[in-house]
Amino acid sequence: MATTPRPRTSTRDPEEVGRRLTTWLDARLPGARVGSIRVPSSNGMSSETLLFDIEHPDTPVRACALRLAADPAAYTVFPVYDMARQHRVMRLVAEHTDVPVPRVRWLEEDPGPLGAPFFVMDRAEGRVPPDVMPYTYEGNWLHAATDAERARLQEDTVSVLARLHDQFPCREAEFLLPPGKGSPLRRHVEAQRGYYTWVVEGVPRSPLIEAAFDWLDAHWPDDEGPSGLVWGDARIGNIVYDGFEAAAVLDWEMAACGPRELDLGWTVYLHRFFQDLTVSFGQFGLPDFLRCEDIERRYAELTGHTPRHMEFHTLYAALRHAVVMLRIAYRQLHFGEVEPPADPDALILHRASLEAMVRGTYWS
After folding, report:
1. pTM for the whole thing?
2. Catalytic residue list contains 233
3. Residue 67 — φ and ψ, nearest 5°?
4. Measured between alpha carbons, how far is residue 283 from residues 22, 82, 207, 356, 364 in Å?
């Protein structure tokens, strides 16, 4: 990992974005201007986040974050970026729960001002567990924390999921259901299958990902459980922490209507992804952190809902992540950042883990 080039996250010039954003903002706050604009170190591979300050005596907020749909010319990670949908989800979460989400201020659906739709929200202050290098590696604040401090962070993270799932009215999440027939989980999986089909259009297909979809069909839960709002990208790298408590929950573009276990499986697996990589590079990592059994137990204590079929949901999380990673790898190939391998499955960074899950040997 240390020698693999980090995929580019943007083809945009932040200074140019700042100038165009000042013009847009002036129509809403005459005389306002955008101060220095910067890209956060934790900026992801999908929608772009830019941080800036508003300079104006009467502004309702000074420290802002801009959430901007991906540049359509930049080989995007997802086929559609619905900023109005993200904006609506965050507004509803703030309205119906006590989960800490940044206050959303302005939504702009016209791509004209910045080249793509965007929204502006309050900027959250605090610390985010790093992805590069991962927090499971030595040399960052979470790895250097005590066991008790990490336990407090884990406890508060599970509490965020429990409160989101318990407090958000199920009926308010139904607008997130993909079109089609069947249960919310069926529709969710079919939407992911459609996403995979889009990813491999015109490029080599992944035998491993297709085997994982077959595994899901063969091990479908007999009781899918209740459905409601799920965060979608439920991982600690999308939370800003004040000390070791959640101060802001970010990145809602994967929000969905489905079983609670979609979030629990994603939380467990995304930690396992970093942990497995860390061990493969000769470090110990954080093997006692975010363990599946601990998350299941605490979640059940907080909600009264005992998580079910977690092997299914952790494999599904690994499958979903594999599709995203495959798209990012093909994006790197597109920009000439890596050489094409003979085997497309070699583009999946967690190939060995997903293969073991499909074989049924991962957890043994």
Report:
1. 0.93
2. yes
3. -105, 115
4. 46, 39, 30, 21, 21
273-290 tens-digit pLDDT: 999 999 999 999 999 999
The first and second tokens of residue 350, run together, are: 């967690």
**CA 196 – CA 319 distance, rounded (Å):** 10
285: how many CB neighbours lie within 10 A of its CB?
21
Q: Could you tell me the pLDDT band of residue 77, with boundaries at 50, 70 and 90?
A: very high
Counted residue by residue, the chain has a size of: 364
- Percentages (nearest 5) of helix, strand, coil residues in the chain: 45, 15, 40
Question: Which of 26-40, 44-58, 261-275, 313-327 has the lowest average pLDDT?
Answer: 44-58
Angle of helix 310-334 relative to helix 261-280, nearest 10 degrees? 60
Of these residues, 82, 98, 166, 233, which one is catalytic? 233
| Chain mean pLDDT for the chain | 93
CA distance 289 to 342: 36
pLDDT digits (tens, 9 = 90+) for 243-253: 999 999 999 99
Cα–Cα distances in angstroms (integers) from residue 148 to residues 76, 154, 286, 296, in the given order: 40, 10, 13, 19
Q: Torsions phi, psi of 289, nearest 5?
A: -105, 140
